[in-house]
Design a protein that fits this description.
By secondary structure, the protein is of the alpha+beta class. The chain is built from 9 helices and 13 strands. The strands form 4 sheets. Strands 3-4-9-5-6 form a 5-stranded antiparallel β-sheet.
């Protein structure tokens, strides 16, 4: 349907961003394609290789409360817990939060430092795109006509790896972040940094890596 209708149509699951854009920001569409009931876009599971698979139609609240996510990838549960209100998280989906492509999207920096990828599907097949290459500008992603974000794939965290997310804004909820940061560190013997990934949100046109900070951290001793 998306392939046939072209740019005059958008997919809709939760609609928490899309309907506001249509009502308040002048987004003019001829059709909405309801994807909320597609079973292929649902589910949180650990794959055979230990990676985490999250369907694009999974709600933010499901991720926030998932024992699987909390146990293996707690930074992601912490990050989505700060998005909007509980009502928004009960309806909004992880796919919508990412495809809306706000530079301040709380889910993006965490997925970037977790080295996660987007599985993108179309009538011609599927492809994987790392999230540090997924965003093309404010409100823009690498998705092209007829493509749909199907699921998010997050590699298992290596032994000795830890990650954290922090965001700052005028209020703790129902507000857009002024700045956010996600950091993933690998520590040998709990002291020396052997690997670092740092991502920042709301400070540029897209969520960005901070390579100079990553290089600076490697080899340093931590307390």
């Amino acid at each position: 349907a998306l392939d046939e209708l072209g740019p005059a149509a958008r997919p809709m699951a939760g609609g928490t961003d899309l309907l506001l854009a249509m009502r308040d920001k002048g987004l003019a569409l001829e059709a909405l394609v309801d994807i909320s009931a597609l079973p292929e876009l649902q589910g949180i599971e650990v794959l055979r290789d230990g990676s985490l698979s999250i369907g694009a139609g999974v709600t933010l609240r499901q991720i926030e409360m998932s024992p699987v996510v909390k146990r293996g990838w707690p930074i992601l549960a912490e990050a989505v817990a700060g998005i909007g209100s509980m009502q928004v998280r009960n309806r909004g989906t992880i796919g919508g939060n990412l495809c809306n492509a706000s530079p301040a999207a709380d889910s993006a920096p965490s997925l970037i430092v977790l080295n996660a990828s987007a599985e993108i599907a179309s009538t011609s097949g599927s492809r994987l795109v790392p999230f540090d290459s997924f965003f093309a500008g404010p409100g823009k992603t690498v998705l092209v006509r007829g493509e749909l974000l199907k699921r998010i794939i997050v590699p298992p965290m290596k032994r000795g790896m830890s990650a954290a997310f922090v965001a700052w804004g005028p209020r703790n909820a129902m507000d857009i972040d002024v700045a956010s940061a996600a950091v993933s560190l690998g520590l040998s013997d709990g002291l020396t940094c052997t690997e670092a990934r740092v991502a920042l949100g709301a400070v540029a046109a897209i969520p960005i890596r901070a390579p100079l900070a990553e290089t600076f951290l490697v080899g340093k001793l931590g307390d």
